[in-house]
Amino acid sequence: MAPPPENGNEILIPLFNAEGLGNPSTVTWSQNHSTRTAQYYPITVDILTTGEQCPLFIAAEFHKSSTANNVKHVSKVGQLLSGEGYKLRIDSNMQYGQKNPQGELRFLVYHDQDRKPYQHRFIETALGSMAAGKAQEIAKKLGQGSVAGSVADLAKNFVGDFLCTF
After folding, report:
1. What is the pTM of this model?
2. How many other C-beta atoms can be found within 10 angstroms of the C-beta atom of residue 58?
3. Which residue in 14, 26, 38, 87 has the fewest CB atoms around it within 10 Å?
4. Given the DSSP bridges, would you call strands 52-59 and 107-110 parallel, antiparallel or unpaired?
5. 126: helix, coil or strand?
6. Among residues of the chain, what percentage have pLDDT more than 70?
7. DSSP summary character for residue 130
8. Helices and strands in the chain: count of H runs, count of E runs
9. If you compute the radius of gyration of the chain from its CA atoms, what whole number of angstroms results?
């Protein structure tokens, strides 16, 4: 098993490519007795520190070119590597979900931390609404061989747990 991404690791978030990313996924959750929704792009990032890859769910407003004025936008917090993307250090500005305390199937989430969705909301909603090819890629990174019939099974590993902060 590859080591999970950890605090202090550096990751490479690819440059925004609307055509390649497609539409963002909508994650829905309940918070303070109301229904909340937010848009996320599920992408695979390189962990520069280890040479591994992992899934990242990035809030649309922190990645889209049209929202570059946001103070948490990757262009404001990361170092541009020309033609590749933005290098960011994993720190307390990033959260994660995982299957168990050993870090198995860890995925990253970069968003407004005032949002309090459970981990499984990313698995169910984001994987369920992605285009087949992209969903297959993320499912593989999360330890599933295929998406068909596995989203619900995979989500069961994450039910009831809030995202953790590095």
Report:
1. 0.81
2. 24
3. 26
4. parallel
5. helix
6. 78
7. S
8. 6, 9
9. 15
